[in-house]
């Protein structure tokens, strides 16, 4: 698969930041950690990875805008294009030595994501997609699963933690979904949840109260893998509402009904 120049820039940046994170992950007990909110942590590893990503991405495309979790927002000279970056998605897993976290990089053009990279550096799984060019994991083209029976399907979500306000909705969702399906998973990295739906590892995923950087890259990876993705309320804009619902095409309607009703 030969991607565009921008996709190659994104993949190169993800690999470089990935090396920094893998190194920090080996010595996780020595990281300085602080809390941004009740259950929201940030460490030296998040900051170092974001610095590398900014140098690589803005170095290569200095006119683009920038939105990243730890470093805020800059409007670029080119108001139509923007990098959207989560340098370490799954910080809580990372800080516990759990190898399930990723780097998420999206390129937005005129308000739509046109390319996305989600890199699981611990497992060396590079998920990526570009508008019209399909979705990939390393050298392999990926597609959403074909399962269409709820009873055979597994779904992932993000369970709320301290400081998050979506507990009542999530409990209601779970009470309806759990008896209807083969299982619900909570892995702890939204970008990988989206990539896993794209790769057909589970049939669907939903979560509330996410940020644009958690979702942006995964949106196009799911779409290019043949999946459907919307905000929980389909009228809302997926990148800004923070509520996401996605699944393979065959089960989408049934799954969406359980969550939305
Ligand atoms: C978090 C993860 C997690 C989700 C949280 C996010 P972070 O991102 O994606 O799965 O449930 O809402 O904030 O803070 O580790 O980048
Ligand atoms: Ca965070
Ligand atoms: Ca995140
Ligand atoms: Ca993060």
UniProtKB/TrEMBL annotation:
It catalyses: a myo-inositol phosphate + H2O = myo-inositol + phosphate. The keyword Metal-binding applies. CDD domains: IMPase (cd01639). Its cofactor is Mg(2+). GO terms for molecular function: inositol monophosphate 1-phosphatase activity; metal ion binding. InterPro entries: IMPase, Inositol_monoP_metal-BS, Inositol_monophosphatase-like, Inositol_monophosphatase_CS, Inositol_monophosphatase_SuhB. Belongs to the inositol monophosphatase superfamily. Coiled coil: none annotated. Mg(2+) binds at residues 69, 86, 88-89, 214. Its EC number is 3.1.3.25. It comes from the Bacteria. Gene3D superfamilies: 3.40.190.80, Fructose-1,6-Bisphosphatase, subunit A, domain 1. GO terms for biological process: inositol metabolic process; phosphatidylinositol phosphate biosynthetic process; signal transduction. Keywords: Hydrolase, Magnesium, Metal-binding. The keyword Cell wall biogenesis/degradation does not apply. This is Inositol-1-monophosphatase. PANTHER family: INOSITOL MONOPHOSPHATASE, INOSITOL-1-MONOPHOSPHATASE-RELATED. Signal peptide: none annotated.
